[in-house]
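To illustrate the input format used throughout this study, we show a single complete record. The first block contains the structure-token representation of the backbone; no residue identities are included at this stage. The design step must infer an amino acid for every position from geometry alone.
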């Protein structure tokens, strides 16, 4: 084996060790139940439960595809966040069950305001300013609740870091995910604030695009703080091996 191949193999091994280890290797009953609720929520988003009987009805059904697709994408994103959490930690303690149940409750509540909001956005339907403000407030409250519950799930995992045997990088990533979800929830709070005033009401929906900026900035700052931890983590792993080699040479 060449020196380049050996070096590449060592780098790959190091990168693999720095990934978050999976503790939830099997789908639990809690996850199975959660998947069923997510599937039910997606069923509620379906454009129509009946096959169109004429061309006019077909066109009316197709007009609802874009709101459905946008809502579907958001629910898939939430499902993936849920999936990633349980793959990482595999928790089934009482507080996790309570928080997970609260998340599923909010997701089911989230369905109709979400679809209605997107339907309004792509149609010619006009709401009164007071009605639109209330709609943004209802949607924002559900949005905030989802991401705060996700933050609490990660906080509960961090609280059990000793039992889960999180290494320094995994503990850092857990704390990072707590604040990442809190920062996204803060965008929802900003949207609600804008929806309370007629002058800024129309900006309330566009404000959610700030999520991309918030996440990008936060992840860049988090990655910068993580690099020294990675170096110390790898140094700590190499130290015993170097000691063994020195001992063997003696």
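Output of the design step:
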């Amino acid at each position: 084996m060449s020196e380049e191949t050996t070096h590449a193999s060592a780098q790959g091994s190091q990168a693999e060790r720095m990934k978050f280890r999976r503790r939830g290797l099997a789908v639990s009953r809690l996850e199975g139940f959660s998947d069923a609720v997510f599937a039910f929520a997606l069923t509620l988003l379906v454009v129509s439960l009946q096959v169109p009987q004429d061309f006019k009805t077909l066109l009316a059904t197709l007009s609802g595809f874009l709101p459905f697709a946008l809502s579907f994408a958001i629910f898939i994103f939430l499902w993936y966040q849920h999936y990633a959490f349980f793959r990482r930690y595999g928790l089934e303690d009482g507080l996790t069950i309570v928080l997970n149940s609260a998340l599923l409750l909010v997701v089911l509540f989230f369905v109709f305001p979400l679809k209605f909001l997107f339907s309004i956005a792509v149609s010619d339907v006009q709401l009164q300013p007071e009605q639109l403000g209330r709609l943004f407030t209802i949607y924002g409250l559900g949005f905030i609740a989802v991401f705060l519950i996700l933050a609490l799930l990660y906080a509960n995992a961090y609280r059990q870091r000793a039992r889960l045997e999180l290494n320094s990088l995994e503990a850092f990533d857990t704390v990072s995910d707590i604040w990442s979800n809190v920062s996204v929830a803060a965008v929802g709070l900003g949207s609600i604030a804008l929806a309370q005033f007629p002058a800024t009401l129309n900006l309330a929906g566009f404000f959610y695009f700030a999520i991309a900026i918030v996440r990008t900035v936060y992840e860049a700052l988090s990655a910068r703080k993580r690099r020294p931890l990675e170096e110390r983590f790898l140094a700590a792993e190499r130290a015993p091996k170097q000691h063994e080699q020195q001992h063997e040479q003696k």
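Structural context for interpreting the output: Residues 24-125 form one domain. The chain has two domains: 24-125, 128-239.
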